[in-house]
Structures are given as structure tokens and as C-alpha cells.
Design a protein that fits this description.
Layout: E1 10-12, H1 14-17, H2 23-39, E2 42-46, H3 52-66, H4 70-73, E3 87-89, E4 95-96, E5 99-100, E6 104-109, H5 118-121, H6 139-167, H7 174-180, E7 184-193, E8 209-212, E9 218-223, E10 229-232, E11 238-240, E12 248-252, H8 254-259, E13 269-271, E14 280-290, H9 329-337, H10 342-347
Parallel strand pairs: 1-2
Antiparallel strand pairs: 2-12, 3-6, 4-5, 6-7, 7-14, 8-13, 9-12, 9-14, 10-11, 10-13
Helix pairs in contact: 2-6, 3-6
Length: 356
């Protein structure tokens, strides 16, 4: 594949949002998604329908939260979230490829406050209630903004996936019907990259997040105005994915790579705060298959594959094949997240001390 561009494509997805919009416009959007996924694995979306006010409120309230004393933030630490695995983690507690990241953050998932929900009743990990801060007058608003944003971004993700399904010559509802159903696995993160991290002695060459690909199906990222996201091209060159006002950065993950047999590749990326004075905020939302969905190859009729679409384990950043896994998405995800917080994983008996 040859790439003449040096920046990621920007796709107008409004034709997918408007009921009874022009069929040709929808096809054109699907074609643009196809080209972006084949050539980049990343793209921006614009005219997405998420209110700018909601984005701004989320950024403002998040910045206020991370400015609080560590002791206050630790009141909702992930260790207090039990098997739901939600809450706050401090700087350096999350690992990428075994190395501490230069970020702190908040973990959220689909809010399940019903103790009779089958997943909660059966003590299934990553299911349950979120932990929200509750010491500040803004915290009620913060909770509302987070949950409102999560609902809006899930709906946007389903819309993008309808266009992506069409890009693979599938019915628009293919992923909704076969993988998301009425309860996709939705994970939301708020990350803060302190400007001071890379200024500290010994951290000069460390990344806020090192090179990696995302585990799941689709990531939708809101970022503040600082920048620092980099994407690796097929020529092993790194390009910037700078903030563009009122857009989201989307990228496909390892599960879509697996489902398409490598036709759509998950793309390595990394992050470093470019500012020496301001903390960087980012808001990745992960829209993934239903917990119990078996991850199977999807129909690829009518699509022309090449030798480049074969298993690329030797070229991947982690030398691991995404195509050998067999089982449900929940089983796959647990093995992945246990490597991010190894201490918490052992505490919750996800993994044994010698299993990774």
C-alpha cells in the first residue's frame, strides 16, 4: 500500500447519522472508512452530533479533578472498586509492555447498579458500579456529564460501526446484531499526562504511553488542545495525530484485525505530553463486543485480500498474533487487562503469579 498523505483522513459521518439520508452519501462515507481502515487504521470523524458543550464540560471537570490532592483522588482508587475494576489509579500504576506509563487516570464502564444483573450476581469481573468522586460541589455534575458522554459516544460508536460494516460489504446492522447486541462491552478512560513527568530526571526518554495497539474493536478518542498522539505508518514512520476542534480520533483494535483476518489492521500508536507547562488530557472510549460473544471471522465475500493480510505477528510491536485466540471476548479481555495492572489482577485472582 502506498500512502501519499502525511496526515490522517478526516471523514464527515453526518450521512450515517441522518435518518433516510441519501444512499449515495452513505456509500461514499463507507468507502472513505474502508480506505482509512486499509491504509491507516486511524481516522478523524467530524459532524458527529456530540455537543461541543458536553465535550468542554468533560474536559473542564476532569482537569479540576486531577488538580486535587492525591489523598483525595485515592478515596476512589481502583483497589476499592472490587471486581468491577473501576476508579482512580495514580501516576505510573498502569503498564504498557511491562513499563510504567507517565499518566494517571480514571476507569469507567457501563453503569450497572442492579445487584440482580446476571453478571453482577455471578461476580463477573469488569461489571458493576462505577466509582465517582463525591467530595466536591462539582462532583454531582461530573458524574452526570461522564454518564451522559458515555451514552452519547456509545451511540456514535454504533453509528460508525454501521458505516464500517458497509465498508466490508456487510449489512449496516451486522455488528449490532452479531457482536454488540443489547449490551456491548463499553470501557471509558480519562487520562491525565502531567507535564512534570518527562521533566523529571530519568524520565526524559519515557512515554506517557508506549507503543501499543488497542485490544478491542473500535476506539473513539477525545483529546484536549495539547497534542502528543503519534501513529505508526506502514513504513515504520511516526506521524502526529494533532487535536482538531470538534472531531474525534477513531482507530480499529486487535479484535477487528482478527475478525477481518488482517484485512483491516490495528495500528500501533503512542503518546507523549508535548507541553512542559500544562497537563494533557485524553478521553478514550472503547466500544467492544458483548462479553459472551464468540470472536469469529466475519464474512469477507466480495473483498480482495492480499498476502499482506496474513498473520503479521513477527512485525507487530509485541510479536503476538491476534489471530490465534479462540473463545469469547470476555475471556480475551481479561487476559489483556491483567497485564496492565498486575498487582490488582492477582488480588482479584485473574492470573497467577507465573502465568504471564
Amino acid at each position: 500500500m502506498t500512502r501519499k498523505e502525511t496526515s490522517l483522513p478526516i471523514i464527515d459521518i453526518s450521512p450515517l447519522l441522518v435518518l433516510n439520508s441519501n444512499e449515495e452519501s452513505q456509500k461514499e462515507t463507507a468507502t472513505q472508512i474502508h480506505e482509512a481502515c486499509r491504509n491507516w487504521g486511524f481516522f478523524y470523524v467530524k459532524n458527529h452530533g456530540i455537543p461541543m458543550k458536553l465535550q468542554e464540560e468533560l474536559i473542564e471537570l476532569s482537569r479540576k479533578f486531577f488538580a486535587r490532592p492525591l489523598e483525595e483522588k485515592m478515596q476512589i482508587s481502583m483497589s476499592k472498586g472490587g471486581r468491577a475494576w473501576r476508579g482512580y489509579f495514580p501516576l505510573g500504576n498502569e503498564l504498557t509492555s511491562g513499563k510504567p506509563d507517565g499518566k494517571e487516570g480514571l476507569y469507567f464502564g457501563t453503569e450497572i447498579d442492579n445487584k440482580d444483573h446476571p453478571k453482577v450476581r455471578n461476580n463477573i469481573l469488569l461489571h458493576g458500579c462505577n466509582q465517582f468522586p463525591s467530595n466536591n460541589s462539582d462532583d454531582i455534575v461530573f458524574r452526570h456529564v461522564i454518564l451522559t458522554y458515555m451514552t452519547a459516544i456509545e451511540n456514535l460508536g454504533r453509528t460508525i460501526m454501521s458505516g464500517l460494516a458497509r465498508s466490508l460489504k456487510l449489512d449496516a446492522n451486522y455488528f449490532d446484531k452479531n457482536y454488540f447486541r443489547n449490551e456491548p462491552t463499553c470501557l471509558f478512560r480519562i487520562f491525565n499526562y502531567p507535564a512534570s513527568f518527562c521533566q523529571q530526571e530519568g524520565n526524559e526518554n519515557l512515554w506517557g504511553v508506549g507503543e501499543h495497539t488497542d485490544y478491542g474493536m473500535l476506539t473513539i478518542l477525545l483529546q484536549d488542545d495539547i497534542g502528543g498522539l503519534q501513529v505508526k505508518t506502514s513504513k515504520n514512520e511516526w506521524i502526529q495525530a494533532p487535536p482538531i476542534s470538534d472531531t474525534f480520533v477513531c482507530n480499529i483494535g486487535d479484535m477487528l484485525d482478527r475478525m477481518t483476518g488482517g484485512y483491516y489492521r490495528s495500528t500501533p500508536h503512542r503518546v507523549r505530553n508535548l507541553s512542559t507547562k500544562r497537563d494533557r488530557l485524553s478521553f478514550p472510549f472503547f466500544l467492544d463486543p458483548h462479553w459472551d460473544a464468540e470472536v469469529l471471522p466475519i464474512p469477507m465475500q466480495g473483498l480482495t485480500t492480499t498476502d499482506d493480510d496474513d498473520d503479521d505477528a513477527e512485525q507487530r510491536w509485541d510479536k503476538a498474533s491476534v489471530h490465534t485466540f479462540r473463545g469469547t471476548y470476555g475471556e480475551y479481555l481479561l487476559k489483556k487487562v491483567s497485564r496492565v495492572f498486575t498487582d490488582l489482577a492477582q488480588e482479584q485472582t485473574i492470573i497467577g503469579p507465573n502465568s504471564y
